[in-house]
Amino acid sequence: MPPPQLPPPISRHVAVIGAGAAGLVCARELRREGHDVVVFERDNQVGGTWVYNPRVEPDPLSLDPNRRIIHSSLYSSLRTNLPREVMGFKDYPFIAKNDKKRDQRRFPGHREVLLYLQDFASEFGIEEMVRFDTEVVHVGPVEDNIGKWIVRSKRKISDDDREVSFGFDVDEEIYDAVVICNGHYTEPRIAQIPGISSWPGKQMHSHNYRTPEGFQDQVAILIGSSASSDDISREIAGVAKEVHVTSRSVVDETYQEQPGYDNMWLHSMIESVHGDGSVVFRNGRVVVADIILHCTGYKYHFPFLDTNGIVTVDENRVAPLYKHVFPPVLAPWLSFVGLPWKVVPFPLVELQTKWIAGVLSGHIALPSPEEMMEDVKAFYETLEASNKPKHYTHNLGGCQFEYDNWLASQCGCPEIEEWRRQMYDAASKSRRLRPEIYRDEWDDDDLVLEAYGDFTKYT
Ligand code: FAD
């Protein structure tokens, strides 16, 4: 029997918003599948989050909706929190280059990740698809033409040598499909603190943290116990008088001096703050502090998107989305890439975009809108039944690799490698147990060997 013939792929005119890791791999997958692709990028280079910017926003809490946005939240000293073997795209491994100018560490600094993404863009000729300095300001369905989208964008007109902006060219075009890859670590979420309006100290969000100098001899409170808070608290403790980290995931009595430090403590949540500068914790301790640093995460934000209320962001749930990607009634003409968190982002977005590209060309079938909506409802009911708050909707924590493998099965490509799963688990455990040294000492060399063996398929 001859193999069944696939129908010829249908080529679509597709707009991709953003040229970070997600937008780059999305452009590659769409083009591989025969689509005609335009990537809009408001910065003047590829890389998104990994383009470190020493400048910060004028408003340290980033509350002013009209502020000049700085996209990246990277701090100067940042090294990856995943080993490079785990972190890279599946078919374009993030291997250490035999080049003295490159960072060859397993957990490299942020510049090495940017160079890797630049290598990726040049290897696959992505830049020719990107319109730089071009911000998408509106995406909405074309009236009376279901499945078509208006994309309005404004392009900076500037003198490159002098970096002077002369204004904007505004453009309006029609696309068959729009893929949103705009990142979700730019719009800060701020903790609500009773009494904060009368507290006289300084506040900022980690989005606007670059280096510890401003914390010299200060008494600092850090809210949150995420990866950023872990790194930043240690860095600040080197210069500050005292550092108090408060976490909502510890019991109310918690008060612990942090191992290896005589000026850093872990507390339970803040109960209130007061006009005399004091900060009262649920454990009963009172500290007079100079500065509160919110390491409290970010909000999904799509200021350009108008779906007539079909897609909403409520308590940080982007809904309704089938498998975190397609709004059922707008599928496949609108899709979101990279929303899941507590994941390994690069291979995940690689698989999501393969799926989107295949669905758009007709190679991969989606269930009907009604069936997708049923699936979404059932998913939300499962979250509710297990008391997961809405803002955990896109947290794939324990099931990210099952999700990846489901996507792989849709695309007919191999599952996530066993070594990658095991290495991810080993790195997570080591980060928890040995936060100071996990980036420089490890005991999974056998897995590293296995990974590099696997990489020979692609290098
Ligand atoms: P981004 O990289 O944010 O790219 C989005 C792009 O969209 C940007 O270039 C932006 O300019 C553009 N854009 C946005 N809006 C518009 C618009 N309206 N018009 C045109 N362009 C627009 N991941 C790891 O794998 N390992 C790590 O160690 C790691 N550490 C991290 C540390 C920090 C502090 C942060 C914030 C994130 C970290 N991440 C890490 C996660 C990181 O976000 C992902 O690795 C990845 O960079 C996300 O890529 P993205 O393309 O989805 O988004």
UniProtKB/TrEMBL annotation:
Note the SUPFAM superfamilies from the entry. FAD/NAD(P)-binding domain
Repressor as a keyword?
no
Keyword hit for tRNA-binding: no
Requisite cofactors = FAD
Membrane-spanning segments: none
Enzyme Commission designation: 1.-.-.-
EC main group: oxidoreductase
Q: Please give the InterPro entries that the UniProt record associates with this protein.
A: FAD/NAD-bd_sf (IPR036188), Flavin_mOase (IPR000960), Flavin_mOase-like (IPR020946), FMO-like (IPR050346)
UniProt-listed Gene3D superfamilies: FAD/NAD(P)-binding domain (3.50.50.60)
Q: Name one GO molecular function term.
A: N,N-dimethylaniline monooxygenase activity
Q: Which UniProt keywords apply?
A: FAD, Flavoprotein, Monooxygenase, NADP, Oxidoreductase
> What's a Pfam family this protein contains?
FMO-like
Q: Which family does it belong to?
A: Belongs to the FMO family.
Q: Which protein, by its recorded name, is this?
A: Flavin-containing monooxygenase
Q: Which organism is it from?
A: Populus deltoides (Eastern poplar)
The major lineage groups are: Eukaryota, Viridiplantae, Streptophyta, Embryophyta, Tracheophyta
